[in-house]
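Tutorial handout. Part one gives the primary structure; part two gives the three-dimensional structure as tokens.
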Amino acid sequence: MGNIIYNKRLTEEYYLMKIEQKNDGKMGQFCMLRAWDNEPLLSRPLSIYDRDDSSLTFLYKVIGEGTEIMTTLKAGDDIICQGPYGSSFPMVKGKIALVAGGVGIAPMYLAAKELSKDKDNSVDIYFSLRGVEILREELSSVSDNLILKTNERVVNLVDADKYDYIFTCGPDSLMKDVYSRAKNKKAIVYASLERRMGCGIGICYVCTCKTKSGNKLTCKDGSVFLGSEVFIDD
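Part two.
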């Protein structure tokens, strides 16, 4: 059980919620959050936006009943927060691009923050979303360059030969496009998959995904995978 420190409305769709909870979370991991008793049936998997040893911060987008309930929470309220779960982005070295669409930007703030601790790294963020922009100042503070576009794609702005690694998260179509443009070039792609989840620990098999090594569980085997493992050529 976590205690809410704040639940800030950024736009009509996006909120930033900070929870007081001890954790050892890593960039790319997620937690299962629940602020209701019986309905909706499933908890909500949310990527860790930021963390320290005693708190977790989550960016979420209002999509359905569960996230709508979350918008009503205020400082001092309790929320069930299980995790962190899943695999993390690797702590790589070199020139790194973080490419995200919509709420897929959620794990990229922490990734940029952690990667930038190595002064030899260079971290660029490419972020596109529909509607009103969010988090420009925050993302700029943890990156060398921020390319933020509203209602406009950013994937075609990423030159995969300029980077050693690309981390991506967002709609499948965006991540597949990132990988497709990079697969014969210099950069190694890691993707954080977004899937509906039931348990978050590999029991329910709701989040099964296809890989080159057969079906795997997004929650337990991922959610971070090598792009070459999950984006199988037709």
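Part three, for discussion. The helical segments are 65-70, 106-115, 136-141, 172-182, 218-221, 227-230. The first helix runs from residue 65 to 70.
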